[in-house]
Structure formats: structure tokens, C-alpha cells
Amino acid sequence: MPYHSPNKGHGSSSFQDSRHSSESLKRIMGNSNLKQHIETAQKTGVCQLRHMTLKEVPEELQKLSKNLRTVDLSDNKITHLPPWFTSMTTLKNFTLNNGTLVSLPEDFGKLKKLEVLCLNSNSLSSLPSSFPNLTNLKTLSLSGNHLKQLPSELLSLPQLDVVDLSQNSITKLPQDMSGLQAVELNLNQNQITKLPESIAKCPRLKVLRLEENCLEISAFTPEIMKTSKISLFAVEGNMFDMKLFHQLDGYDEYMERFTATKKKFN
After folding, report:
1. Does residue 3 form part of some domain?
2. 191-213: per-residue pLDDT in tens?
3. Where do the segments described as Disordered lie (predicted)?
């Protein structure tokens, strides 16, 4: 007579039970973890919610909309920001890197105290028309998105210092770039084929990064080389040999600016 173990048939169900209990434990832990972060944010004005497997911005943040200065929602699966997000009028730093963000709210410009905005490695293809209202924005990082052109909304931001638009699909720049206030503009790893001469009129532009684009040597006109304030061109990996860059009309004037800037930092 075959021997039947008295425990036969119970192993799988006890395994499932333990799996369910560990899943619910994970859920409870996740919620208490979130609760803890929210409580900390209430005291400090800094909310750090990275790697929380969030699919949307937690509603609990809405209650803190009047005292949050810094929010980091990086490494989550958030595709949209809720309409109430723009009521966080005290927000100075907002980061959501490595996400699935496809757009920003149309009234995003209400965040008038915003100084630093980092939305690297998302799926943004444009900026809302209210973006120029971010009059205190100093640092903007949109590397690794789906932009096909440099957003014209950036050309009227008065405090802008650093703009990173690297690793997008930008093929062209606005014809009139003279309104851009940035000191550094990073356009590395795009598909830019031409530079508008108006880039020479950018009042504060000192560093222009254009590595790994589709530029011919003719893009660097005498006006750009001679009259711009640019003291660092990073242009390796384009459609020309760097020897040709060194032979450009205006290269000497550029090197004077480069050397003068270098001396300042030495």
C-alpha cells in the first residue's frame, strides 16, 4: 500500500499563503514608508520619494503644497503630474529623472519660485506655453527626452544659467537665439545641422556644447567665431576634422576669449 504523506497537498497552499502575506507586507511597508517620507517633508519642506514604484504623484503632497521647497520623484513610473501640482507655489527644486513623464501641466508656469528643474530621461516632446512665466528658473535639465527642436519658451527666461538638452532629437535651433540668457548650453548628442548666426548675440553664453551632432565646418561662421561671447566650444564628433576648426576665420579671436576665461579660473 503506497505511503501518503499527511502533509501532501498543503505545501503549495502554505507557499501561496506566505507569498500573499509577503506581498501584503510589502504593500503595508510601502505605505508606511510613504507616510514616513510625507511626515519628514512636513517638517523639512523636502520630499524625497525616489524608487517608490509610484505611478502617480501621491495626493498626500497636496496638503503640503504651501511649504514644500524641494520634491524628488525620480525613478518612478509617473506619466503625468496632477492638476493640483501647480498649486505648490513655494517649490524651488523639482526633480523627476528616469521616469515616464510625457507632458507637463499647461499651467506649469504657476510655479514661479522654481529655480531648478531636472526632468532627465523622460518622454517629453514639448514644453507648455506658460513655461516663460518661470522667471526665477536658473537650471533646466531635459537630457534624454524626445525634443525635436530647442523650445522657444526658453528664450525669454531672464534668470536662466545652465540648460542641458543633450541626448534629444533636436535637428534645428530657433532663427533668433538672441533672447537666450543661459551661460552654458549643452546640445551634445542631437542631430543639429546648422547654427543660426544670432547665437553670436546671446548676451551671456560662454559655454556651448555641440559634441556628436551633424554639423559641417561651415556652421561656424566668422561672426559666431569673432563676435560671440562663447569662450568654450565643445564640438568633437561632428562632420569635420578638428584641424579644420583650428583653421577657421575667427579662431584666433575665440582662443583669446578661451585663454582669458582660463586665466580667471587659475
Report:
1. no
2. 999 999 999 999 999 999 999 99
3. 1-24
